[in-house]
Amino acid sequence: MPHPEPLDLVVRGGTVINADWQGAADVLVGDGRVRALVEPGACPPDAIRRAGAAELDATGRLVLPGGVDPHCHVGFTSGEFTSLDDYHQATTAAVFGGTTTIVDFAIPRPGEHPADVVALQRAKAAEGLCDSALHACVVDWDDTVPEQLRAVVADGVVTVKMFTTYRGETMAEEKTILNVMTHLRDLGGMVVVHCEADHIITDVQERRASAGAIGAGHHATTRPELAETASVAEILAIAESVAAPVYFVHQSTPEAVDLVARARSRGVRAFTETVAHHLVLDDSAYAGPHPERFVCCPPLRSSTTVAGLRSRVFHGQVATIGSDHCCYDTAQKESARHDVRAMPNGLPGVETRMPVLFGELVVERGLPLGRFVAMTCANPARLNGLYPRKGVIAPGADADFALWDPAATHEVRATGLHMATDYTPYEGMRLTGRPRTVVVGGRVVVDEGRLTDPEPRGRHLASGPLGPALIC
Ligand SMILES: [Zn+2]
After folding, report:
1. Do residues 82 and 24 share a domain?
2. What is the pLDDT of residue 45?
3. Helix (H) or strand (E) holding 72
4. CA–CA separation, 54 vs 27, rounded Å?
5. pLDDT at residue 70 is higher than 60
6. Cis amide leading into 388 (omega within 30)
7. What is the 448 CA–ligand 1 centroid distance (Å)?
8. For the segment 158-195, what is each residue's pLDDT rounded down to a tens digit?
């Protein structure tokens, strides 16, 4: 057989879909990694048996790299609310949805040092069914921050989240963002920013509250699109001024994406992330019977905005698509539905990200499979310093992949999902295409929709310097 030893698993008869190559190939796996891609049939079944390897029949299946979710909050505390999952639950849900790497956040609370929070959070990776990486987070500037940034980068965390909203919690001043960008630029890292202009939102929310229109049904109107546009423009100007790379999380409007695209054309190393719910759901959800279940920041936008955002995805202006997974349940969401300022923000989504995007963008609207893999697997790996270990099926990469049945239809039901909550914002949505068998580090963790290996073996992934990934 044309392969290097040892050989533990052969995935036979499938069509491999990478971002930049697709075709019929058998995948040879040994020691947790991809050893080789070979012509179909180059490994006959009796030879596989003689080598002592297991075999997966992927006939009729697409073999995709395991998804890399660049935006995932696990057990996240905000105000009085903590989201309901731990690493074992979040990664179990992830693998059922075809995602085999998550990037979580180490967000300090007042008085905590970013580097300490990273150290605490990275220890949780071992509870996972799959590997994970982290974004650090800086809120306030002081003399210790440069040394802490050096420490987190040395610890393999090269991305730092910053917020332009949530004053008094996680919001950072513009000068702090500028300072962190400058230091990270020299360390081979990158700031990732949640952009919504806090002063605009606070003012609008106060006026809406005075008018008695601050409940969950009014959520979209309390965080206007122009607050996002204004903040993105400001942060892009800072990045351009100090020649630092910058990544915008969950961009929700075409205007915000266009600002990034124009900056890129001037040579700014700027990147757009969108998230699944902003591409599939719209603000009509706030007029429904359970508006609180859709409260996230930025909010769901109008159907016109959603169509504009989707068109940016199809025209190559979006680098990555994450989930912004945050696993609250309906009781938590309902408890503060009278006032969006007190609500827990965020939607469960680590499990539904890949199937929803596959069904809605690839099957329904014709997004090429390579682009789907680029935005959900390869680019998130690149922009988090994890490529080519993750995000691609190629010799040397970790053997993380999912066998998709591209024709299987199903209806999304919360009761059929594995996230630590009792609802999904996609309840009742009919989708075509789903991952059926999922391999993590060469182990078959999900087989034909059943969990076959629940043992936690997750690793914290040390990210490499971003360097070449940031070339526009
Ligand atoms: Zn988030």
Report:
1. no
2. 79
3. strand 72-73
4. 12
5. yes
6. yes
7. 31
8. 999 999 999 989 999 999 999 999 999 999 999 999 99
Distance of CA 275 to the CA centre of its chain: 7
Q: Does residue 261 belong to any structural domain of this protein?
A: yes
104 CA from centroid of ligand 1 (Å)? 9
Residue 147 neighbours by CB under 8 Å, 6+ apart: none
CATH number at residue 430: 2.30.40.10
Q: 8 C-alpha to center of ligand 1: Å?
A: 38
* pLDDT(3) > 60: no
Q: Say how far apart CA 305 and CA 296 lie, in whole Å.
A: 16
How far apart are the C-alpha atoms of 389 and 434, rounded to whole Å? 24
Two structure tokens written together for 370: 């390579």
Same domain flag for 81 and 92: yes
Residues 433, 305 share a domain:
no
Q: Are residues 204 and 290 in the same domain?
A: yes
Q: Ligand 1 centroid to 191 CA: how many Å? A: 14
Considering the domain architecture, whether residues 250 and 108 belong to the same structural domain is answered as yes
Structural domain includes residue 1: no
CA of 281 to the centre of ligand 1 (A): 17
Dihedral of CA atoms 6, 436, 414, 412 in degrees, nearest 10, equals 150
Q: Which residues keep their CB under 5 angstroms from ion ligand 1?
A: 324
Q: Are 315 and 376 in the same domain?
A: yes
Say whether both 367 and 322 belong to one domain.
yes
Q: Summarize pLDDT for 118-154 with one digit per residue, the tens.
A: 999 999 999 999 999 999 999 999 999 999 999 999 9
- Which residues, in sequence order, are CB contacts of 80 under 8 Å at separation 6+? none
CB 419 within 8 A of CB 351: yes
> What burial letters (b/e) apply to 428-464, b meaning 16+ CB within 10 Å?
ebebbbbbbbbbbbbbbbbeeeeeebeeebbbbbebb
pLDDT tops 60 at residue 4:
no
For residue 208, give its domain range: 66-392
CB-side neighbour CA atoms (13 Å) of 463: 32
Q: Are residues 204 and 305 in the same domain?
A: yes
* Closest by CA position to 94, among listed 124, 64, 77, 74: 74
Q: What's the CA-to-centroid distance between 135 and ligand 1, angstroms?
A: 11
**Total domain count for the chain?**
2
Q: What is the whole-number distance in angstroms between the Cα of residue 71 and the centre of ligand 1?
A: 6
The answer to whether residue 273 sits within a structural domain is: yes
Q: What's the pLDDT band for 405 if we cut at 50, 70, 90?
A: very high
Residue 421 covered by a domain: no
Alpha carbons within 13 angstroms on the beta-carbon side of residue 175 total 3
